[in-house]
Amino acid sequence: MALAILGIVGFFVLTSPLTWSLIHPKRDVADNAAPNIQNGRTIFIASDCATCHATPNQNDHLKLGGGRALDTNFGRFYMPNISPDKQDGIGNWTLAQFTKAVREGVGPNGIMPDGQNLYPAFPYTSYQHLTANDVRDLFAYINTLQPVSGRAPNHELKFPFNLRRGVGVWRLFFLDGKPLSPEKVPAAYKNEAALFERGHYLVESAGHCAECHSTRNFMGVIKSGFRYGGGPTPDGKGHFPNISQDETGIDFWAVNSIINYLKTGKSPINKIAGGDMAEVIQNTKQLSNEDLRAIAIYLKSIPGVDLPAPGQPEPNRTPNLVMLPQVNKIDVALPTSSTNKIEKANIVYAVNTKPFYLTENSSGDED
């Protein structure tokens, strides 16, 4: 009996949000300046808040009534109402409560007085790097928006993931609570150091790019060595692309190609963004040119991860020409030599109207 009681007490201690707070250092707090609403809007856009929290089946992305479903291997999550509605949203939250939710993954509405562990489907593992002033400005901006009544359905999760309290153990192991560590500015961008640092901040905190574009383990944690190398979508039915500086990623994209993509959704080879990324583009196209360049030059510094997407051929890492099998039937004869001649030739000339490796000032739109 005593052992059972001890086990129950131990469980509640380990899973308590208070335990995490006690063993992690205090973070910065917002200064006494008035909130910067415009900056709050920028953080809101960069963080893709509306992509998840806007009420589905309506056109106003600033109506943050929640309800969107996210299917994962753990079950189905429903995005909550984060509008300023006092009954169903976060209209009664304090800045301290909002900051704790965004940076620590703890909400104020738990069944216990120590708070409610939030599932990391909400990417607080990235948002933890936001500064206190930016969180304050974000909170102020959200409170300028229209209150929306109504609550999202309860999550539909498999056991044991439906035991929200257990997320406290996950947080103890996988949420470090640290501010963003400085990144060495590459020599190529030494004259744009401030922009590089801004890009580092936007990509690794608000933008939470790694949360989608990385492979995770069975615990939902990004695998070491696979950050930005792409990975399966939460439902396992699709694949997020590799955005690292590898030939299986976006190594051949120039800075301006990345900027153009984040503005228009069009890649250097004229492929249009679809799925979740199409929604992300609706946000990134609202960012300033300076912020887009900051993001682009930081992405160009990310180490390469050699990880072809499923179904794609392995890159040819040899100096030899490799002829891939023809997948689709071509009705029109192409003006090329036969494959037999190409395989035996000492020199092969390839002509393309678009450069594959693009220059710094190229967007990929040139003929």
TrEMBL record:
Keywords noted in UniProt: Heme, Iron, Metal-binding
InterPro entries to which the protein is assigned, alphabetical: Cyt_c-like_dom (IPR009056), Cyt_c-like_dom_sf (IPR036909), Cytochrome_c-type_DH (IPR051459)
TM region(s), chain numbering: none
Gene3D superfamilies recorded: Cytochrome c-like domain (1.10.760.10)
A Pfam family matched in the record: Cytochrom_C
Domain Cytochrome c, chain residue ranges per copy: 35-146, 194-303
GO MF annotation, one: heme binding
Protein name, as recorded: Cytochrome c domain-containing protein
